[in-house]
Amino acid sequence: MLAKGGGEIDFVWAAYIEEPGPAEAIRYGELPEPEPGAGEAVVRTEAVAVNWVDTFVRSGKYRTELPRPFVIGRDVVGVVERAAGGLREGERVWASTLGYAGRQGPTAERVAVSADRLHRLPEGVEPVGAVAVLHGATTALIGLERVGLSAGERVFVHGASGAVGSAVVQVAVERGAHVVATARSDEALARLRRWGAAEVVDTREQWSSPVGVDVHWDATGAIPLAEAVTSMASRGRVVVTARREEDPVPAFDLYLRDVSIVGFTLSHASHEEQARAAREVNRLLAEGRLEASVAHVLPMADAARAHRLLESGQARGKVVLVP
To answer: Which InterPro entries does this UniProt record tie to the protein (predicted)?
Structure first.
């Protein structure tokens, strides 16, 4: 095939959709090689994470501007093939803000990315393990920053075996908090103890939310807001990053208990917040203080299967796609 100027058009293999829809709408095929614009680098993809938000964008549940066709995904680790913005060819980099607001996702052999969205990955950090923590860690860092977590505060994390919940535990422990965390498998409970959670709750047994909590982070969205608020200490903060569509806000209890609810989605974080979080992600990765449980490493050609694994609840850990 010829380009307008008469030259050959190169192609890359990519997982993409033509229109929002179910996982079956994902196609794997050839798309034109990405042409970098001003300030954009070309990155050869090594690993792409599959996040819940990716399924929301793909299905149309999360409404955002999408190019057509739209390459799916958000988080990527790869190697710079064409440099820009002070980056050098051959450097390993990562990004976690692709795939929404008009930007293509990274589930392709190569992707063009604005250099100011790329961060150098610390030496010695392995791509699959790194990409698995990016979304959760960035969410945890910005969310805990927004609620002003202080050392010694009591943090309750429900659903602490998932990508976001596990990152909240690790970041909160690193910040000196007293962390109470829930999980429902022996393996996950052991990880929480190893990460330094002060109290670990097995939700396979009868349990109830702890009381006197300074920060309440339900990564599952299953605990009603009314129940969360009644468990809070005075001036406690409830972080909402996952929630059922209908969950009444207990306004009177907020007033009586001097409690605040902080709604937060990573997609709306400012560039400055993202930059601060990226520096912390790199520090924690370099120190070996961030990790995630990876359940499946699949080829990009299996992107539709990866989305089905997540949506069906069969993935007991992170799903990562590789070329």
So the answer is: ADH-like_C (IPR013149), ADH-like_N (IPR013154), ER (IPR020843), GroES-like_sf (IPR011032), NAD(P)-bd_dom_sf (IPR036291), Zinc-ADH_QOR/CCCR (IPR051603)
